[in-house]
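Entry 12.
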Amino acid sequence: MSQWTHVNGAFRFDYVAGVLPPLHWNDILGVDRPSELEEADWKLCSLPYGSEGPLLFNINPHPLRNHLNAFNVQVFGDLRDFGSERVEEIFRWFRGVCHRCQSGPPYPGIRDAVVTIDVEGGEYRLLTYVDGILSDRLVRKRV
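Predicted 3D structure (tokens):
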């Protein structure tokens, strides 16, 4: 029987095109296009992955081109054979993205972020980043 972990979240990034250097999503999130990775490459990217692939993301530019809140990035995935003992991998990745984007150019600024982690038959966690503060909250622990 497989162990599944479901992940859903979003990051809001500030960026001013033409003033700041061009963005390289591989450096920010760990890979440019996770849906195009071959299985042999999963371990080479910094995205957490299960036996059927890594987390995925959609990069959504703000519809008003010159808006400071330039990008909203949706992160999601159903990680198979990924249980409670590996949840720390998601925490490390989330913290890494937040810390890199807190450091200034060449990274965009980070406004806020939230990620939920639901381990089937296990815990449900909520990770947040607001005003430079990271938090991890256990919402539910199943026995």
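Annotation: The mean pLDDT is 87. Residues 4-141 form one domain.
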